[in-house]
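REQUEST FORM: STRUCTURE PREDICTION
Request ID: SP-0412
Submitted by: Lab K.M.
Chain count: 1
Length (residues): 123
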Amino acid sequence: MAEHIKSKQAEYEKTTRFSQKTRKVTFRLSESEYERISDDIAVCGLTVSSLVRKRLLGIRVASHADIAVLSELRRLGGLLKHIHNETRGAYSSLTAQAIKDLSAYARALTGRCRAVSREEKIP
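STATUS: Completed
RESULT:
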């Protein structure tokens, strides 16, 4: 499934990068819908049109900040594993707890990313 999403993203970038956008679509939103889109725009760092276009085409939208944080969490987990290996488990209870905490935070952050992108496709 991840390959399918990556191929959709690549196809989208290939077809939209150089294509001239000549059509304009205007629509109205309720206050709550607008707040929701505004929140998603703030989290994802996209424009309104880019966010709506990606969701309409079924392309996953992820937060740039969250992706950077997840990358850092992975790096820290690797460092903890390195410490565990270098000390031959001398701090195993501490490193195990730290890895559990990092994993829990990463799962929570991944859930947040999915919450933003769960409405990938507009019905």
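NOTES: Residues 58 and 121 are 4 Å apart (CA to CA).
Reviewed by: T.R.
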